[in-house]
Q: What sequence folds into this?
């Protein structure tokens, strides 16, 4: 064989794969791009025929309107509700998971019941929950929504954290027990640092779930604690969609998620597969 | 009492301090708050709903008398309900295999290492983490007949103006919903399958290569069995999500035109929050739970058999 | 002072009776090794002493005080685990200091003790590193260091060397022995490795099925096993057990094999075996008690026996030779050049003075 100047078969395949990868990425990110771009357009540009693929200039009036009208309160509400409920769910869920993982409290049955709670479709419980909330005057309250999302996320947290805790070598805890810690201290000084990465990842996911939820928020909020997905649907309406507002609100509601998930890349697979795939 | 070497021992008094009591009952103390919340917000509404489903409560009447199976019998006569179940089934049956297939092809593209792979994966996963309401809204903008780029691109490809009312025209509402759904969730499948494929035993693949097996044979004999458990889990998670699809439809079509894209979740919502058929809604909810339980159990059974 | 006394200790895991009534006294300053095959209950017993498991029955006393109701942290013990149990998020220094911090030791004292221990173990230069940056041997040293600084009354080791490769294991074994000479604390060491047990122990406690099979000084167990199990467990390669029958001969008693071969037992044994003629036995001969007959006169109790080398495995100084004796395979550990090739027939000298006779029915040694 004589050496040839043609690229080797390997190089050609790699080049093809890059072409495929770039095309695929453009295809999947185009809608996201479109959304972002609209949020920077003026109404004239938004309602231009044919559609313009780049805004004439970057301007923030769509965002400005959201701030001026106070609609961004919905983002703040979402932050409060998703943030608080995640923290509570993480603390209570991790403790519960520790009990399940280390003491087998309640046996396999309790663990199965907990994960089955996750499988219950929200639509099946949202109506009775609504009635109960009406009865107790908890509709449109931060407490009500936080309690709901906490409960909604607990099975997930417990399930995931149980997996992470089981992965912590028992000997680490036993060594600490011999060395002078009590169980509470062991949880805080040994288990917590060991599962911290998993804990962070799980927190991000619980936050995302609560943040993205629409159905519960739709039913259980009125005016005071409207979250961003509900606020977003307020802009839909026949032909007079406020596209600028829709786009700007969507971007505001999506940025935190992008940041959080990008930071948590490494744990994405385990997180979204309910721990079935360790990734 | 016991045959033991005669030893002199002192027995220290067992300290019963408060801290010690806390430690003794730690397994229960730390599990209690979570379980309590789950019972309160998870189980209690279900039980309440079960009771209500055997009563006569409607918007106008708070009639708590025993209705027997009346509400459940009603389910079988409700054509709109069965239509909604049918719509849900259509979406699930079409979207799920599409997501799986596209996810698998995407994973194949990225299975071998290449510089920048991490970045591609990170970008491709973005649609999956977006709020479904935002996803729906985004595609509503995309699909708009005058101001959206989809029509523009199709017109360009066709060489003549293409005007499709995606979210209104009965022929196109399902494709619209499914495109949006597949766009958002194929990356989910991609991510899981990529992880599963990377975990396939390399030595088996190398051995097959040495044996001169064709790609299709390797796929059938080694790769598919190895990734089957992950595929099953992914399909289960996505399947359950698809059956309760709500947000995307709410944002895209609101169940329309008419009730053409009304899914079971949407129908339940309407029965509950527009018609206030309290007892009947509870009965629907249990129908949904029963269906999902059956499906989940079947899938899990098959997974266990496959093991 | 801290002796350890167990009496009537039982432990169940569900239906599994893991420890079945152990009575044991370990004296102050003693190095005791709990040894036995996997599943014999040795680790469970150690964990019970540590307080990581509660016994279902029986008492455990450390230093004269019953500790059944005390938490592990209240027992003043230190423990070294098989997988080192180092905290990956702490430096070596903080790992070693962990127990001291838990007990709120003043910083000056803490630093002094950590440095002392690190010096003693030769890991003084590694204090600022993290466990993942260390080799297996270094990690094990850190784990031991963590135990030393505690200045506990009792040291527990749970198979500390089984994750190390062979060479490192030999080295660390020596270090642990040296450590015991230096700090003279009572130590209880669990292993499944009979070499570790023999080399380290002042007292071997050999466990089987949750019970003590025999305990005593290493050489006592090796030379005077009470059961066939003990004889078989200690020593490498394992003792050869050859089925035979006792028979009277002109000048004493012989072991007659199933294939008709015989070996005359030494005269010193005759009196104790009187009246047992015709009984089946297992004749236990250690591989080391075979040698190649030189042709000269044989010592009292040493018999010659012709055999064919069916398989030879030279190890350098010694050659392990598989032979047939009494119709069954046996291993003889011969000098390097005693046998050169397969199929060679040689005359063996068998030292029966140290042979062990076992009752096949009860498994006990006939003394």
A:
């Amino acid at each position: 064989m004589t050496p040839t100047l043609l690229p080797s078969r390997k190089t050609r395949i790699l080049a093809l794969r890059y072409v495929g990868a770039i095309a695929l990425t453009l295809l999947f990110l185009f809608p996201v791009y479109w959304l972002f771009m609209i949020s920077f357009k003026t109404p004239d540009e938004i309602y231009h025929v044919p559609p313009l693929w780049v805004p004439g200039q970057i301007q923030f009036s769509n965002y400005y309107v959201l701030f001026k009208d106070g609609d961004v309160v919905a983002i703040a509400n979402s932050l409060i509700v998703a943030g608080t409920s995640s923290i509570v769910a993480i603390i209570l869920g991790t403790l519960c998971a520790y009990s399940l993982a280390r003491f087998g409290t309640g046996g396999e049955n309790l663990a199965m019941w907990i994960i089955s709670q996750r499988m219950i479709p929200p639509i099946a419980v949202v109506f009775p929950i609504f009635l109960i909330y009406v009865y107790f005057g908890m509709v449109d309250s931060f407490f009500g929504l936080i309690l709901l999302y906490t409960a909604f996320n607990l099975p997930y947290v417990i399930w995931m954290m149980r997996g992470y805790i089981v992965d912590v070598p028992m000997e680490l805890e036993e060594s600490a027990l011999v060395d002078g810690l009590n169980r509470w201290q062991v949880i805080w000084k040994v288990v917590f640092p060991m599962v911290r990465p998993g804990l962070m990842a799980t927190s991000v996911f619980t936050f995302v779930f609560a943040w993205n939820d629409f159905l519960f928020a739709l039913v259980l909020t009125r005016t005071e604690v409207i979250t961003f997905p509900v606020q977003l649907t307020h802009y839909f309406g026949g032909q007079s969609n406020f596209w600028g507002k829709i786009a700007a609100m969507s971007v505001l509601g999506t940025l935190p998620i992008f940041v959080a998930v990008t930071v948590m890349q490494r744990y994405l697979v385990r997180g979204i597969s309910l721990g079935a795939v360790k990734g | 009492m016991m045959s033991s070497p005669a030893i002199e021992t002192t027995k220290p008094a067992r300290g019963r301090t408060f801290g010690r009591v806390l430690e003794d009952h730690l397994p229960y103390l730390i599990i209690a708050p979570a379980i309590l919340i789950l019972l309160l917000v998870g189980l209690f509404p279900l039980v309440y709903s079960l009771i209500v489903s055997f009563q006569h409560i409607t918007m106008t009447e708070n009639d708590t008398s025993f209705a027997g199976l009346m509400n459940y019998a009603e389910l079988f006569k409700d054509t709109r309900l069965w239509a909604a179940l049918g719509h849900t089934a259509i979406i699930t049956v079409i979207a799920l295999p599409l997501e799986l297939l596209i996810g698998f092809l995407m994973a194949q593209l990225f299975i071998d290492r290449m510089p920048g792979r991490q970045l591609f994966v990170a970008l491709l996963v973005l649609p999956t983490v977006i709020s479904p309401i935002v996803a729906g809204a985004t595609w509503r903008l995309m699909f708009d007949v005058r101001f959206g780029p989809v029509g523009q691109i199709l017109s360009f490809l066709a060489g003549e103006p293409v005007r499709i009312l995606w979210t209104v025209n009965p022929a196109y509402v399902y494709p619209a919903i499914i495109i949006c759904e597949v766009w958002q969730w194929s990356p989910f499948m991609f991510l899981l399958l990529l992880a599963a494929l990377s975990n396939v035993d390399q030595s088996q693949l190398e051995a097959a290569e040495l044996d001169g097996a064709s790609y299709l044979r390797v796929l059938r004999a080694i790769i598919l069995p190895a990734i089957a458990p992950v595929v099953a889990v992914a399909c289960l998670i996505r399947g359950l999500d698809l059956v309760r699809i709500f947000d995307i439809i709410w944002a895209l079509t609101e169940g329309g035109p008419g009730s053409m894209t009304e899914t079971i979740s949407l129908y339940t919502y309407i029965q509950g929050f527009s018609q206030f058929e309290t007892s009947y809604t509870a009965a629907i909810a249990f129908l949904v739970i029963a269906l999902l339980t059956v499906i989940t159990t079947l899938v899990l059974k098959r997974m266990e058999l496959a093991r | 002072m801290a002796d350890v006394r167990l009496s009537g200790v039982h432990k169940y895991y569900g239906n599994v009776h893991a420890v079945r009534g152990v009575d044991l006294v370990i004296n102050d300053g003693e190095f005791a090794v709990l040894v036995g095959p996997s599943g014999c209950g040795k680790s469970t017993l150690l964990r019970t002493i540590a307080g990581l498991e509660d016994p279902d029955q029986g008492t455990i006393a450390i230093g004269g005080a019953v500790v059944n109701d005390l938490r592990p942290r209240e027992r003043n013990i230190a423990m070294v685990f098989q997988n080192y149990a180092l905290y990956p998020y702490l430096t070596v220094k903080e790992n070693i200091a962990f127990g001291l911090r838990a007990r709120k030791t003043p910083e000056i004292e803490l630093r002094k003790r950590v440095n002392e221990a690190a010096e003693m173990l030769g890991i003084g230069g590694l204090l600022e590193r993290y466990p993942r940056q260390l080799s297996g041997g270094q990690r094990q040293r850190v784990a031991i260091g963590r135990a030393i600084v505690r200045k506990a009354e009792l040291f527990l080791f749970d198979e500390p060397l089984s994750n190390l490769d062979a060479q490192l294991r030999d080295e660390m074994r020596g270090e642990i022995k040296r450590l015991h000479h230096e700090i003279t604390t009572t130590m209880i060491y669990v292993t499944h490795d009979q070499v570790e047990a023999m080399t380290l122990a002042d007292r071997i406690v050999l466990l089987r099925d949750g019970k003590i099979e025999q305990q005593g000084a290493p050489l006592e167990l090796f030379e005077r096993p009470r059961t066939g199990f003990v004889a078989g467990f200690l020593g490498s390669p394992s003792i050869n057990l050859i089925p035979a029958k006792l028979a009277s001969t002109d000048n004493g008693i012989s072991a007659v094999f199933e294939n008709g071969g015989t070996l005359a037992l030494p005269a010193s044994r005759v009196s104790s075996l009187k009246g047992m003629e015709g009984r089946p036995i297992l004749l236990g001969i250690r591989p080391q008690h075979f040698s190649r007959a030189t042709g000269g006169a044989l010592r009292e109790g040493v018999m010659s026996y012709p055999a064919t080398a069916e398989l030879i495995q030279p190890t350098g100084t010694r050659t392990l030779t598989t032979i047939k004796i009494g119709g069954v395979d046996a291993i003889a550990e011969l000098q390097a050049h005693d046998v050169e090739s397969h199929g060679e027939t040689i005359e063996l000298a068998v030292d029966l003075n140290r042979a062990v006779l076992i009752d096949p029915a009860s498994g006990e040694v006939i003394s």
Summary: The longest strand of chain C covers residues 302-314.
